[in-house]
Amino acid sequence: MTDTPQIPGPAAGAEGEAAVAGWLAKLRTERSYSLRTVEAYGREIAELRRLADGRGWAELTEADVRRWVAAAARAGLAPSSIARRLSAWRGFLDWLALRGDVQANPVRGVRAPRRPKRLPKALPPDLALRFVQPVDAADGPDDDPFARVRDQAIVELLYSSGLRLSELTGLDARYAELGPYRSSGWLIRDEAEVQVLGKGGKRRTVPVGGPALAALDAWLALRAAFVAATPGADAHALFLSRRGARLSGRAVQRLVKRLGVARGVPSDVHPHVLRHSFASHLLQSSGDLRAVQELLGHASIATTQVYTSLDFQRLAAVYDAAHPRARARRRSGEPG
Known about the structure:
single chain; 336 residues; mainly alpha; 4-stranded mixed β-sheet; two-stranded antiparallel sheet
């Protein structure tokens, strides 16, 4: 790989090629983009040159760009790939407009197709309850009471309170203010709550259910003895590793996945699945979208509304399984 960004694809005349070279050089020197990134931009502009088909940059029209977007979508190009290409084209043509080489940017008003909305994965209530059943010896590595009791408290708290992974690992056993240290999140045992610091520095208080409290009490007793007997153990962190350090997010992901397999949950369970399950099941039971928004710490109600889609899917599945006309429609092959 050389230090000069390569400009792949056919040239739309020497003048057009020089313009592309100038823009790529600007990205490399003024914006400090890596050589690999600049070459990726060069490949995107090569597609723009193909679209121009020998015409000058000023002859490109918005209709040309819209036709390309439609053709790319029909060909199955991912919306993210279309958006990335349009972004590169938009930046290049904006630069040409600043230089006076084009009067207007034909890409400015064109947007990529919307990406399909990904629904969060949530466990059905029966599987969620199976997952958080008390840990038995078979679930713990080498019949380790430390891991079993701690892990049970973790999964109960994740499902009970819908915490993000970072919020869970950031919890202290109680509020601490010692020198420069200040707790960012902590358990308030007497109030059956946790105080967490969420996205954007937004603080919220979340209730903790009875089974989670019982699991936490068992862990707190074991944790206190462990901290007292382990030199250098983190005196603040609620959840600790066997070495006495604050438990990492990656370690929590591994233990949640392992417990899902051990407890026969036919899904790839990770901490966020338990957060989604908390939100979905709470919304199904209460119908209170605003309350779920507050408990999850979502800044916008639109983010929480995705769980209404999950609820509708559940109702649709119940209908398909139970309604006589739905069964008749499936047997007859009639369209739904």
